[in-house]
Amino acid sequence: MTPRIAIIGAGLSGLTLANELAPDAQVSVFEKSRGVSGRMATRYADPYAFDHGTQFFTVRTPEFRAHLETLLAQGHVAEWKGNVVTMRVAEPRTTPVLEDRPWLAPHYVPVPNMNQLGKLLAKPLSGPDHAVQNQVVLNTEVAPLAIRDSLGWHLFDKECRALGAFDWVVSTAPSTQTARLFGGYLSPAEDLPAVRMLGCFTLMLGFNKPWDRPWIAAKVRGDASDASPLEWIAVNSSKPGRNAKVTSLVIHSRNDWAQAHIEDEPLGTQKALLGHLSALTGIDGLKANYLAMHRWRYALVAEPAAHPPLLDSDLQLASTGDWCAASRVEDAWLNAKKLAESLAQAIR
After folding, report:
1. Which of 23, 42, 22, 50 is nearest to 136 (CA)?
2. pTM for the whole thing?
3. Taken in order 125, 129, 134, 135, is the CA torsion positive or negative?
4. Which residue range forms the structural domain that includes residue 271?
5. Among 1, 30, 172, 269, which is most exposed with the fewest C-beta within 10 angstroms?
6. Cα separations (Å) of 103 from 36, 86, 234?
7. Rounded CA gap, 134 and 36, in Å?
8. Do residues 294 and 319 share a domain?
9. Same domain, yes or no: 291 and 255
10. Residues 6+ apart with CB under 8 A from 209
């Protein structure tokens, strides 16, 4: 009998797992958002596009480099080049000092947008390449596990609609959400690490004119912790394959500042970030042709756990995610591949 596997989360981890397991299993990927890719997401507001989560990725390991070479050759990934600066701020709302910030390693982005990798991974899951039917189900938040019988784990969504019975359930959500999903089924020895995740706010500004400054990205540094809530400013329209006839800006807050304000009223948060952006750069976000803000509740691992992916062969539960290592794209891919190998052995 073909094993049935439910994967929670259609980010890079979940979709990589699904593709590794799909040739020998019936895989269903459940994603609570309306699109795939997780934090490797793109917000569309024609003629603008914003990579409002992950900004780029680098390469450290031979395994990931080999994978990247294929993506580069196929034109799905390209190197992002340009002048990057550090904006050093001494006091709140003071004019920053600009310093060159050379990248010591190539920085890569998917083309034409950040979510391209997720789309590539999701496309074959329901195609004719596999002997069994697989699927990616969007706009579906899986409820905590409650029923397991001879047919397997019975999954339901938050509205108590049945999603099917599965032999294995794999979560790629943050550790706190995975612990909630798995409930009390895990033994104390298998408790997920209490990894603390920090939030982030992303401003997205669109202007109907090309970018006219001599830098493509800026890292904001302050001599005091309260110097600025901003950490990163990127000209998203300067990335390969994007629309350079307009200006699409992505501005990230500091993670510690975001965590302190994560439950604040959104308009107040947006106003504060816009005020600091104007003071730093002279860019008036209120004059933008497009303005939006996104809150990432789980954006960055505060302290990576260096923990192997979870796999319980008796309960047939498994999990991987940022809590295993860090929030880097490469780490997510490596841990998903590692868990896929362990799962394939357990299934066999």
Report:
1. 22
2. 0.93
3. positive
4. 39-114+196-302
5. 1
6. 29, 11, 14
7. 15
8. no
9. yes
10. 246, 247
323 contacts 171 by C-beta, under 8 angstroms: no
**Burial class of residue 154, CB neighbours in 10 A (0-12, 13-18, 19+):** middle
- Residue 205 shares a structural domain with residue 293: yes
Same domain, 168 and 57: no
Do 208 and 154 reside in the same domain of the chain? no
- Report the DSSP pairing between strands 152-156 and 147-149: antiparallel
Rg of the chain over Cα atoms, rounded to whole angstroms, equals: 21
Distance CA 71, CA 64 (A): 11
CB 318 within 8 A of CB 339: yes
Q: Write out the chain's pLDDT in tens, 348 residues.
A: 899 999 999 999 999 999 999 998 999 999 999 999 999 999 999 999 999 999 999 999 999 999 999 999 999 999 999 999 999 887 766 678 889 999 999 999 999 999 999 999 999 886 554 444 689 999 999 999 999 999 999 999 999 999 999 999 999 998 888 989 998 887 765 667 677 889 999 999 999 999 999 999 999 997 665 678 999 999 999 999 999 999 999 999 999 999 999 999 999 999 999 999 999 999 999 999 999 999 999 998 887 667 789 999 999 999 998 888 777 999 999 999 999 999 999 988
Looking at the fold, whether 149 and 298 belong to one and the same domain comes out as no
DSSP letter string over 114-161? Answer: TTHHHHHHHGGGGSTTSSS--EEE-S-PBPPP-EEETTEEEEEBTT--
Compute the 3-state secondary structure of the chain and give helix, strand, coil in percent, each to the nearest 5: 30, 30, 45
Please indicate, yes or no, whether residues 189 and 207 belong to a single structural domain of this protein: no
Q: What one-letter code names the amino acid at 123?
A: K
